[in-house]
Amino acid sequence: MRFTLIIALMLQVITSFAQEAEVVHHTELQKCFPESIRSSYIGEGEMEGSTMQMEGMSMSEATYTYKKKDGTEFNVSIIDYSGATDIYKNAFAVYQKGLYVENGDEIIQATEFAGNPGWTTWNAGTQSGDMVLSKAERYIIIISGSNLSSTEPLYDVAGGLKLDALK
Fold it and tell me: What are the structural domains, with CATH classification, of the chain?
């Protein structure tokens, strides 16, 4: 729940300072999703996405769900919002400072994956976790997993995505 609020607040801040900019069409973002990841996580259903443009704001999003035979499920989203480079720098700078928060069942901590700053959340009570990464100070990658025993599978999924295509 806290994770969702953090993302909602961050997106609200981002959109309030928006400048009109070109974004990558969602069908291009979908190319970052392989059909399977390490042959353990299989894509399920259709990839979804949308591209929105209006005065002062452009944004696109692609999503895909991966499942493992043991019931582990991951929802992966890639968001392009190219008008907010400075805001991304500021928002993700907090996590580059080594943030660590623990309260009850939930842990939030800074991470870096393949040179991309972000954070992970882990909720032992619900056996769920999230990873949020910033790529090229433009894209946000969100990986949400359920039926997890730790945050390690989030890193596996992140490693299987074709993120090098995002420039």
Answer: 2-165 (3.40.1000)
How much is the mean pLDDT over the chain?
84
Phi, psi of 145 (to 5 degrees): -125, 150
User: Could you tell me the two tokens for 81?
Assistant: 């919002």
Report how far residue 165's alpha carbon sits from residue 143's, in angstroms, rounded to the nearest whole number.
17
Q: Which helix (H) or strand (E) holds 8?
A: helix 2-16
**pTM score, two decimals?**
0.83
Burial 67-106 (b: 16+ CB within 10 A, else e): bbeeebbbebbbbbbbbbeebbeebbeebeeeeeeeeeeb
- Radius of gyration for the chain, computed over Cα atoms and rounded to the nearest angstrom: 15
The predicted pLDDT at position 99 comes to: 84
Residue 2 phi/psi, 5-degree rounding, is -60, -40
Question: Residue 49 and residue 40: Cα distance in Å, rounded?
Answer: 24
Indicate the SS3 state at residue 122: strand
Output the CA torsion 12→17→19→24 (10° steps): -30
